[in-house]
Automatic annotation (TrEMBL):
It comes from the Bacteria. It comes from Nocardiopsis ansamitocini. This is Uncharacterized protein.
């Protein structure tokens, strides 16, 4: 079982799936705020897991940025900041 203190290890498949999602999103023009929220949730989860496994300070900064993007997406859904 995983927890925030012991997240599931990142696999090459996790990264490949995420990058496929990024490519697919780039070609779409019909993304909704809900689509964006789901994407930023997935991104924040992946980046947090990477940062958990890495001593690199850049990994921690990237994870913090992903969480900030998720917070902004949530705010847009709630009408809190356009």
């Amino acid at each position: 079982m995983t927890s925030p203190q012991h997240p599931r290890p990142v696999t090459a498949s996790d990264i490949a799936d995420f990058l496929t999602d990024v490519q697919t999103r780039a070609a779409r023009t019909d993304l909704t705020p809900t689509d964006n929220l789901a994407f930023f949730q997935r991104k924040a989860d992946l980046m947090d897991r990477i940062a958990h496994e890495s001593p690199d300070p850049d990994a921690i900064r990237v994870a913090a940025n992903a969480r900030a993007q998720l917070t902004a997406a949530r705010a847009r859904i709630n009408g809190e900041g356009f």
